[in-house]
Write a structure and sequence with these properties.
alpha/beta, eight-stranded mixed β-sheet, five-stranded parallel β-sheet, 12 helices, 32% helix, 26% strand, binds flavin-adenine dinucleotide
């Protein structure tokens, strides 16, 4: 456990007890006497999906950077999850990555991943957080409004409606409120009602239709590797991911852009897998035992809210996680960004709570810029995605395509690419002269 830091107040509240709320709760536990997370759902003890996190039924990969931060916040977390059946491995060696017509060559690296269902991951983090004696979770409570002191320019708590057993709306006061309520966050309208401007919102439409199914995992599948990712790219932008999970299961997600629907019947689902540019997912599901129904999820837009641009913002209030920025899920970034935002929040709190919102948004914007560039930049290769295709975006996409081709044989390039995709390093590292030279040499060999 990280030692007690400066004492910043009596009570902090987090709206939402999903991944970003739990991680924010961990950051706050060092600074406040009491931390209360409030969620509208009943939170299951078993590793089961729940209503407030419908994406939890779909394949969730935790990038290497996310696993590293989780380990920092909750030492021993990976080993604990592996002891319960999650699968850990080298993401450069134990996962197949296909994009732009080529596989990255597999190579030993320091990039360690954790293959685990989303409900198990969330439940594991929640269990660890609740070991802090000053943290508690109030379930089945809907946060309706923020409490606000206009004279002090300050959020002072929340209004809550318990879901069952009481008609009474409760006021809970606090020194800090963190909104981690996901994409549907009501913070923009709460701010409007309190007399502040709403943040600018950017939306990049992708209209992705996911279909996910669980299958029994057998040792011979995928030559013992823990996953394969067939990235969406030209010509048809079909996406496929298969990842190991606890309970000797595979989670398989197939997806298409802009109405290219994955069929929801057995035959159509398998045929969609057959249509992917590589056969690994089809080879598994054509005769593996399905362990449940084919489940849909519709994801419409990459969405970012620029709170850092607001000239006025109340004291005692922060917004984080998907409420701040939510990314096209095919890049698997959301939970890792939530992890790094928790570190950023903790870092901001070391300097006190004065101006915490403004300071956090500025720092978070710098860290969000990178995954946003990766997700939106890649999506802009699709001709139907509307957004500005700057010279830089077009150059980077052109270059990455070539890098992938060269990284089919060059293990140094494969590792460098995965370090960036796993948010361990910045994309600029791929543009260094040494890397560019390897990319160029690789072109001569293919
Ligand atoms: C299909 C799909 C696949 C994905 N795959 C990946 C992946 O592979 N890797 C990855 O890193 N990320 C992935 N993501 C993204 C990831 O799910 C999110 O980034 C992550 O869950 C963090 O979200 P959050 O905690 O901010 O919000 P959410 O997970 O949306 O949680 C919001 C919480 O707030 C609660 N809540 C909302 N409103 C209120 C209210 N008024 N009062 C009380 N409680 C409230 C909800 O009940 C919920 O618990 C995927 C997303 C989708 C849609």
């Amino acid at each position: 456990m990280i030692g007690k830091m400066a004492h910043l107040g009596r009570h902090a509240i987090v709206i939402g007890a999903s991944m970003s709320g739990l991680l924010a709760g961990r950051a706050l536990a060092d600074y406040y006497d009491e931390v209360t997370l409030v969620d509208r759902d009943a939170l299951p003890l078993a590793y089961e999906p729940r209503k407030g996190v419908p994406q939890g039924r779909h394949t969730h990969g935790l990038l290497a950077r996310g696993r590293e931060v989780l380990e920092q916040l909750f030492p021993g977390f990976t080993a604990e999850m592996v002891a319960e059946g999650a699968v850990s491995g080298d993401v450069a060696d134990a996962v197949l990555w296909f994009n732009h017509g080529f596989y990255l060559c597999n190579v030993h690296s320091d990039l360690s991943g954790l293959a685990i269902s989303r409900p198990m991951l969330e439940c594991g983090v929640r269990r660890r957080l609740l070991q802090f004696p000053n943290v508690r979770i109030r379930e089945r409570c809907d946060v309706l409004e923020l409490m606000h002191d206009r004279d002090r320019n300050r959020v002072t708590g929340i209004q809550v409606a318990p879901r069952e057993g009481s008609e009474r709306v409760e006021m809970i006061s606090s020194d800090l409120v963190v909104d981690a309520s996901g994409r549907g966050s009501r913070s923009p309208s709460w701010l409007g009602a309190m007399g502040y401007a709403k943040p600018r919102e950017e939306q990049i439409k992708v209209n992705i239709g996911y279909k996910t199914r669980l299958y029994r995992r057998r040792p011979e599948h995928l030559h013992g590797k823990m996953g394969a990712i067939i990235a969406a790219c030209r010509p048809d932008w079909r996406f496929g991911a298969v990842l190991a999970q606890e309970g000797e299961r595979w989670t398989v997600s197939l997806a298409g852009y802009f109405g290219d629907e994955v069929p929801a019947d057995d035959f159509g689902y398998i045929e969609f897998a057959r249509s992917l540019p590589k056969p690994e997912i089809f080879d598994i599901i054509k005769d593996a035992e399905p362990l449940g129904p084919i489940l849909p999820y519709q994801f419409s837009t990459n969405q970012r809210r620029y709170y850092e641009e607001l000239a006025r913002f109340p004291e005692g209030f922060v917004v984080c996680g998907d409420a701040l920025c939510s990314f096209n899920p095919v890049y698997g970034q959301g939970m890792t960004v939530a992890c790094t935002e928790a570190l950023t929040l903790r870092e901001c709190l070391t300097k006190g709570s004065e101006g915490i919102g403004r300071r956090f948004f500025r720092a978070a914007a710098r860290l969000i810029d990178i995954p946003w560039q990766i997700a939106v930049g890649s999506d802009l290769q699709h001709e139907r995605v509307v957004g500005e295709r700057t010279v830089q975006v077009r150059f980077v996409n052109w270059y990455i395509e070539r890098l992938f081709r060269s990284a089919n044989r060059d293990s140094v390039l494969a590792t460098k690419f995965l370090e960036v995709a796993n948010l361990m390093r910045t994309p600029s590292t791929l543009l260094s002269p040494a890397v560019a030279l390897r990319v160029w040499k690789g072109q001569l060999l293919t």
